[in-house]
Every structure is written in C-alpha cells, then in structure tokens.
Amino acid sequence: MSTRIFHLVLELRERLWAKPLLYCFLAVIASFVARGADAGPVGALMPEISPDTIQTLLTIISSSMLAVATFAVASMLSSYASASTSATPRAFKLILADDVSQTALSSFIGAFIFSIISIVALKTGFYERGGLFALFILTLSIFAWVVLTFVRWVDNIARLGRLGTTIDTVEDAALESLRDRRACPCLGGIEKTDNNALDGDKVHDDRIGYVQHVDMHALQRLAEQNDLRMMLDSPPGCFLAPGRTLVTLDQSDPVDEEIRACIAKAFVIADNRTFKDDPRFGLIVLSEIAARALSPSVNDPGTAIVIIGRFVRLFAAWSEPLDDDAKPEIQHDRIIVAPLDLAEMFDDAFTAIARDGAGMVEVGIRLQKCFVALASRPAPGFRDQARRHSALALQRARTCLDLADDIDSLERIRKTLPPAAP
User: Fold this and answer.
1) Fewer CB within 10 A of the terminal residue: the chain, N end or C end?
2) What is the pTM of this model?
3) Across 81-226, where does the E strand assignment appear?
4) Any idea what DSSP says for residue 275?
5) d(CA 87, CA 265)
6) pLDDT of 319-331, one tens digit each?
C-alpha cells in the first residue's frame, strides 16, 4: 500500500464519523449472522426462546441507546471545547481522536442500529428456532458490552478535556513522533551534507498549506524509473507557499510535466500540521500551552513549569543513543533529506516560555535547571543549544526582574552549566 494512502487511512481516526459508521455496518451484519444458526440440523437442537422475550430486550436497548448517544455527543463536545480553551486549539485533533470516547459513541449507535434492525426482522418472522437463540445470545452480549463501555467511558470523560490530560496526550503524541523520527532521521533517505546537496531543476507546486506527509516510496520509485536523484526541500511540517521548492533534482534540464505532477502527488498538503510525521509540531503545541498559562489572564506558572519538565523528558528521549540493531537503514538511496535541526527544536520548545515567563523567577529557575540537565546529555549539539538558550533566558529575565536576588539566583544556576565544547 502506498504510504500516502496509508496516511489518509490513519487520518480517519480523527474523523468522528468513521468509527460509528464501521460499528453501524457491523451491527447490520450481526443481525443477519444470527440467521445462519437456522441452517442445518444444529438449529433444531438449540433451546427455544420466545420472540417476545428478545423483542423486550431489543426494545429496551433501542429506547435507551439513542438518548445515551445524544448525551455522549454533548459530553464529548463539552470536553473538546474545554481542551481548546484551556490548552490550545492545536491540541483539538488529538482530543478528537480519543479512542475511548469514539468507541463508546460507536457502541451506543451500533447497539441502537442492531436493535432496530433485529426488531424489524423479528416482526417479519425472519428467524427460526436456531436464529432466535443466536439472536438472544447476541443481544445479551451487546447489552453487556454497552454497559461495560459506558462505565469505562464515564471514567474517561471525567478526565477528557482537562488541562493535565491534554498535556499528557500531546506529550505522548510528541514522544511517539520523536522516536519514529529518531529511528529514521532522514525518512529513510540519504543524509544531506554540504558535499551531496543538489542544485539542479526545482519542482514546485501551486498548492498552499502545510506538508503533512511525503510518500518516500513513491519518490524513490519515480527516481529509479527516470534515473534521477532528488533532494527533499519541503519535509513534513513545512509551509508550502508559491515559490517554495518541493524537491531539487540532480539535473539542470527541466523534466517533463508528467514527472513533475507525479512528484507533487507524493506530497500530502493540508491546512494544518499533524503530529504523526512532524516531531516539531508536538514541541510547538506544548510550548503554546505553556505560553497560554503564562498570560496575564491565566497567570498559571505551575503549568509552564510542568511543561518544562516534559521538554526535558522529550529531549532526553531524542538524545538517547540507538542500539546497533536499531541503526537507521537507507531505504531510499536516490533521495537526499536533511535531518531535523536541533537549534530549531530548541527554539520551538523554549523561546515562548522564556519570553512570557521572563518576569517570573520560578519559571526562570526551572528553565535554567532544565538547560543544565540538557547540557549534560552526550548527544551532539545539546550542550551548545542549552548554553545558547540559557543565555537568552537570562538576558530576558534581566530586563523584567527588578530584584537583584532573583537575578543572582538565575546566574548561580547558569554557572553550573558544563563549559562550552572546544
């Protein structure tokens, strides 16, 4: 399967209608599967169940599930609104993709559809002795499933949309994306260096939006078929505007329009960034949550301090050395890709917090301790970036803090930073 198609299939998780539609389809199938118990001599040996008994159970389900589903939708919408206002609108897609809530809503709607179809089938005499017993067992099973799902969903909806839960969800998404990119830093291509950078024909696209996904397999296959080498200029997360290059080829002569169209087709462009293939987006969203908490209207430095701790955990995961058997393999030897820039990742995470929290000594202290911790990581570049942002945060604090003792506290922590690399 093309990775582009696979990406689009995964995007269905963020559509609130996708899983309910699947459950409705399964409910219809379940109603007709019970009829299969009437086939053969086995059905005559099953216990006899009165159709009125089954109809009573199905009527209870049909009369209650629609109301429960309506209540579930109202509760979910309230949680979504809370997540958007208390954290950041960029976290909305993650909350929308909550699997427990989608499963609960889908189960309620699916049970309602199952009960309606089964009642109609009962009234028309669709089932015989075996089918009635199978339908009875299915009805009891669905009833038990709905009850367990409801209990689980109530526990989940009490937390969904809360700021702490949103932070955890964004961190998990960012950590997963960082680990995926850590295992494949150049998307399976060749790492870009000063020696292998290309400067040939450039392929553009008229679409405007963010690059959500790049089908590297399609680009590799196209390069092999046309004996080309490509350099990826717009990786996932880039904003594509008129004049922005998608890829640069190794030949100066322009390729034909069909090849250019195939190259552009390998890029999924949309209005918003996503977490899956864009590790920096998770850092940006966490930073936005901290910046909102530091605004005068909210005045919640504790949330910013919590997120600074999450950044330490995320960058520590990014700096962990890979095992020998986990070393990235070059799968697309005709595509050159630049790895993520550590300086830009630090900027995404810490610039807004250092700016908005410059007047809060508790935030400044936590930032300096964070940079001391990150500077000790053995990964290349961490010490330089930690020292750079430590100096910037201290400089911002000096312009906002009036008490000399507060500035002295920050300077004492900064002095514990490891010295600059020779």
Assistant:
1) C
2) 0.83
3) 190-191, 202-204, 209-214
4) S
5) 35
6) 988 776 666 788 8
